[in-house]
Design a protein that fits this description.
single chain
Length: 33
Amino acid sequence: MDVGRETWDVRILAELYLHSVSYVLSRNLITGT
């Protein structure tokens, strides 16, 4: 089930990336205002 592991890793990385992006965007909006 190596494919399953890879897909899970990709999903986790994608979630972490989205969280970091949303965090940075929120900070920029707060500081921008």
